[in-house]
Design a protein that fits this description.
- It is built from eight helices and ten strands.
- The protein has 226 residues and is α/β, with parallel strands linked by helices.
- The strands form three sheets. The protein has a six-stranded parallel β-sheet, sandwiched between helices. A two-stranded antiparallel ribbon has the order 1-2. A two-stranded antiparallel sheet has the order 5-6.
């Protein structure tokens, strides 16, 4: 720790939080993953398993907004002509609805369709960064790194879904780019609880090889007053 950082109680040791230079990242809290009838449900998943992250994310959003700190929302979605969705992604598995198919919330995971939007409880506000990403990681084909660098961001606090796929991929991408990363334990969820547990263990192994994890309460307690 130094004079510019605040210690947050975390695993495997204290996380060096940097006020003003830490962006809150909310990964893919979209209707297509969270609500019945969307892509997550079409894969046979119980989407209610993801609802547990909403409260913690909302509390963190309020804290960041009160302080005017940077916030990033991501949406996994594709162009209407699917030119940015490789067949290796679209044709994988056996969902009842594939990417681009018409569903109850419009075409599945297509930019601009209702299902691709972020759930109302966590909707972005003016001035917040919103990234439409064609891949699992938030840096692939998005220009996000350059945007964060221009704003002086050095640290990232991760939330969102799903823990082991888009959240972990984005966190590993961020680690490779030099960001100090924290994953909020109760601000992320998976359709498979054992996958979430494994991801938390992997990222913090070997001295925070990818990053840290901590409950939202520990992070909120460490924040300077708004």
């Amino acid at each position: 720790m130094n004079a510019d950082t605040v210690a947050v109680a975390a695993t495997p040791f204290a996380y060096p939080f940097a006020p003003g230079r830490t962006a809150l990242v909310v990964i893919d809290m979209q209707r297509d993953f969270i609500e019945p009838g969307g892509f997550g449900a079409s894969l046979g998943n119980d989407v209610t398993r993801l609802h547990g992250a909403i409260g913690a994310i909302a509390a963190l959003l309020a804290a960041w907004r009160a302080r005017g700190w940077p916030i990033v929302h991501t949406r996994e979605c594709h162009r209407g002509d699917l030119s940015d969705c490789p067949p290796a992604k679209r044709l994988r598995g056996g969902p009842s609805l594939r990417i681009g198919d018409p569903g109850p919330m419009g075409r599945v995971l297509i930019a601009g369709e209702p299902g691709a939007s972020i759930i109302p409880a966590l909707a972005p506000q003016g001035g917040e960064i919103v990234v439409d990403k064609p891949g699992k990681g938030m840096f692939y084909a998005t220009g996000l790194h350059e945007t964060l660098q221009a704003r002086g961001v050095t640290h990232l606090v991760f939330t969102g879904v799903t823990t082991e796929v888009c959240v972990q991929t984005s966190m590993r991408e961020a680690n490779d780019r030099g960001y100090e990363c924290l994953l909020v334990e109760d601000g992320t969820e998976s359709y498979f609880p054992e996958f979430k547990a494994a991801t938390l263990a992997m990222i913090a192994a070997q001295g925070a090889i990818v990053g840290w994890h901590a409950p939202s309460a520990a992070l909120l307690e460490a924040l300077v007053p708004a």
